[in-house]
């Protein structure tokens, strides 16, 4: 059994953004030489998350609109009164309550077992940011 850990680094350009990282993840996976096991993806950020969903432009816009309407940016949030890092981002933390920081994908016969419509998204909730990370850990043979 092998454990291989890698990191993908990316930048975001919008306050709320869905970035399809499927091709990057598959590329990193293929470089490991593993055939069977599990892939765990993790966001080390409290205002950015990982999501498996369909990559379709109209649906993606619906997702962005939904998130923006779910928790209004201009709410009277206590966290914004004295933000730790100077960012009034309580809305981003609150949106994150509805998302996963990690996803696990099975691996078999040298490929990720994603559904036919599934893509892997990095979900930015507090952008833009010059540097974000996704941690990948492969466990397998």
Number of helices: 3
Mean pLDDT reading: 96
In quaternary terms, these chains amount to single chain
Q: Which band does the percent of strand residues land in? A: 35-45%
| Helix percent band | 10-25%
SSE succession: EEHEEHHEEEE
Provide the spatial order of strands within the biggest beta sheet: 1-8-3-5-6
Distance between the termini: 5 Å
Structural class: alpha+beta
Count of distinct strands: 8
Q: Let me know the largest β-sheet.
A: 5 strands, antiparallel
Shape label: elongated
Short synopsis of the structure:
The chain is α+β, with helices and mostly antiparallel strands. It has three helices and eight strands, in the order ββαββααββββ.
